[in-house]
Specification:
The radius of gyration is 24 Å and the shape is globular. Helix 2 crosses helix 7. The protein is an alpha+beta fold and 376 residues long. The protein starts with a strand and ends with a strand. The strands form 5 sheets. The protein has a 9-stranded mixed β-sheet with strand order 6-7-9-8-10-14-12-13-15, with helices on both faces. Strands 11, 16, 18, 21 and 23 form a 5-stranded antiparallel β-sheet that branches. A 4-stranded antiparallel β-sheet has the order 20-19-17-22, with no helix packed on it. It is 20% helix and 34% strand.
Length: 376
Amino acid sequence: MRDSWNLFPRACASGIFFTAWELPSNKEPSAGCRGWAAFFLFPPPACGTRRNHAIERMNSMGKLLTVGSLTAREGEKVQGMVEIPGGSIQLPVTLVNGVRPGKTLLITSGVHGGEYVGIQAAIETAASLQPEEVQGQVILVHPANPNAFYQRVSYINPGDGKNLNRSFPGDPNGTQTERMAHFIATQMVDQADFCVDLHGGDLHEELSSYAIYSDASTPENMAVSLEAARQLTVRYIHKSAATGGLYGCSALRGIPGILIERGCRGLWTPQEVADYREDLCRLMRHLGILPGTNAPAPSPVEFQYSKVLRAPKDGCWYPMASPGDWIAPGQKLGELRDCFGNLLFEAVAQEEGMLLYRIVSLAVNEGSPLCSYVLL
């Protein structure tokens, strides 16, 4: 069969031109292309109006969705690897540009490489979501920390030893993790109307499902974030003052968002992934990106802030309370002992609340979390 010419529009200051590539039908330009040509579709406009006319003509083609080297035109879905400036790392990204205008949603997963339920939910959502059903635009990253994912490392990026969830808004001239954070913040967060960061208990954590929203934004954005969290099927909601994670970064930039935790201990099941995907569908329906309304679901229990108890030194951790347990002031939540069995530290609740998560690995490091509880 004879190969065909495929046209790809580009904008310049003097008008709109097309590049034409000879290649098999429905393919993007690649090493297999046999030739190209460029020509103007419109003549250059009168002096003094060139820039405005070029922009208007490009806008008439529909709003573009661009992240790094990937661009999806209106009604298009594009997937590919996006290189972080500075080299050495690429992120798998999916862009879904709907057939009707609407809000832009950013979905990130795998900020921590061992949180598999959220990563798989993002992978499946990216595969199934189609432009024909979308009103607005959706950006998906799956996963956002590929080095940690493939090397099965908890918390940190093994490329530089930094925690991506503590590195936002990042630094374009910094370490690998700092450059990743800056790229996500400037290329993705800044063009979103809402951000959702998918987490879960890492390889050594056990938890109940919950959502977090930030108090680092305006009261209006906090209300938008809380109302979105209320659409989910998670068990609990609480707010946080942290700003180093993606949802805190988006709050500081004036964009509402939430973090969801579902799944734990380096495990994932199809049911957990299905529950996470349902949360994403409920969120997209709530934002008007997907059609329909959400069916009633049990309301999550809402708390105020959470408190994290940390290890004062390296040792062996023996937890004494489980996620979902109600706790009282003075209740012992666990013990830290050395390798001879000597007591090093007792983790004791200072307030009334509920245990949110606990570390289930025997070994813990100085400064690392032992458990966390939410306050009434």
